[in-house]
């Protein structure tokens, strides 16, 4: 290029080409909001008492003898976060089914980090606004879900489990009460509060 | 007259004020590094037990000392230098006001430190309603109010100084002439003024009620307060990030001139115009901190994501101009397309700080790609990928470039040769490499799901085994090397102040002398300078595509 300014123009083209990410969104079909999406249930406000009642009812109706709860397809899963535990603390899902997870904090700001073997899904859980996620597990296994927003001195010990079981008709449940919970003092302790 | 000679003419009274800010900043940085040593010990699984009780207190202190006070002091020093040292011996409008501002920032530091060591384990975010459970949390908010007041006063002093540079205040031509004449870096500081004032106003809006609430003087719905606080906080916190970004680039323009004698082949108005982009594009892009929050709708987040992409543009173009300054200057001495790179003053510690700072800034900037987008943020939000990019940005880039300025500052200001040449030469490379190890392993840890701000990542033994190895590399190797590089810098600066060989005049010492370039031809082309930006854009696009690929293979599909 003969003119020095040609390089400057090239630099502007180079810098603005970061906007190529926008057509990339179009290619991946995420340019426009989807129902569910990553909205996390924006603007669905609810009182903590009301949500706690729903959660208690959800746990009561779905509790198994081992203390875990088995979610039903089509009905929302209610989880309440509080310093320093999640209720319920073990949720069973069936692979291939779609669910809606609704979460609320009873006290301070928390977050969930759903660990999926070398990668994670993260969302904030606040007081006053429901975090709602549509999810569809495809692979059976046990998934650790931890709090990844600092919520106080016991933050490190705040987590729960999601167990994805084989799809209905091909069910092979883990034996009740034989979860690797015995490895895990905190889950064991929280387990006692799960029905509150 | 060279820029170094111009800086040497700074009035001794203004110089004292700059020195006070720089020394206070340096002490804050020493404190941040000392607490980082404890964090490295706790967060390296191979080093010992994870002590949550100690970790959160040290983390609060580390971040407040490093991100708030080191930057507040050193950036105030740079602001004053922009109004005096780069003005050929020009004076600050009010020295007294400068000292009052200093007293406010220093008081904020003391108040915050008392609060932290009295038990406010609130992290530097100090979010309500969590803060309520710590009795000394009000001291965090109060300290922030003091530092905000100090930042306001020193910026006011700077602005008043700028106004004195125009005789006929009503004349637009006079203002244009002044803005055209001043150094690019001083212009950058002027562009930062509206951002600093926005930060200060937001800080008052945020922390006055927060202080009163934490003292129990006002009753408020804790949940509603938490939501409003979180939103306002992120507006302020977002803009705060761009003060070091702008100051670092402004300092880069000074360093490239001091170390190589290069000037831009493009009109100065281009670089100055790019600084004007920051106050325009920065405030509306605050949303990218809230991509995983339930309080904002997806449509708004997507608009926020698109806007976020704009924040890279001015920085990428500055990187091109600064690299181009070196390229055209070096090639005018007859060096070839890439041959000029070899002849740069790699042994000058300030040049090494500049170049390694720019490289680290580019790499760390690329790592932000996934976090800035609503569509991909849930992959990394709250994971260790966040500190893995922010530390290279604020330590490996901004702080390193400020260190380069400090090397000149102690040499020209104190009339001393640098003590410990070898240490000074090694330090910028070591710091940069250390932060790049931290960034590389820490980003992998983030992608693997390791949460940030968690002392014990074992989760009762159910966490993936790979986490330990990744954190051993991130903190054990990257963190430890960073600490060593920090100590080297403190030793060189400290020893130079007290034992550096005296120089006859205010001039750069032997290690800092400007590269001698003898032009043999006119050369005004900058093709090589395009390469870093092209790599950056490709990295950003590849990271984005990579994030979509990972999300597509998730064993649980969301949305």
Textual characterization of the structure:
The complex is a heterodimer of chains A (196) and B (559). Chain A has 196 residues and is α/β, with parallel strands linked by helices. Chain A is built from four helices and ten strands. Chain A is elongated, with a radius of gyration of 21 Å. Mean pLDDT of chain A is 83; it is low at 171-196. In chain B, α2 (12-43) packs antiparallel against α3, α5 packs antiparallel against α7 and α13 packs antiparallel against α15. Chains A and B meet through α1, α2, β6, β7 and β8 of A and α3, α8, α10, α11 and α14 of B.
Structurally, the number of domains of chain B stands at 1
What's the overall average pLDDT of chain A, rounded? 83
Helix content of chain B: 55-70%
Largest sheet of chain A: 6 strands, mixed
- CATH fold descriptor of the largest domain in chain A: Immunoglobulin-like
CATH topology heading of chain B = Cytochrome C Oxidase, Chain A
CATH 4th-level superfamily of the largest domain in chain A: Cupredoxins -  blue copper proteins
Biggest chain-to-chain interface with counts: A-B, 89 and 90 residues
Helix coverage percent of chain A: 10-25%
Count of individual domains of chain A: 2
Radius of gyration of chain A over all CA atoms, rounded: 21 Å
The CATH class designation of chain B is Mainly Alpha
The low-confidence runs of chain B, each spanning 5 or more residues with pLDDT under 50, are none
Which strand order does the major sheet of chain A show? 1-4-10-9-6-7
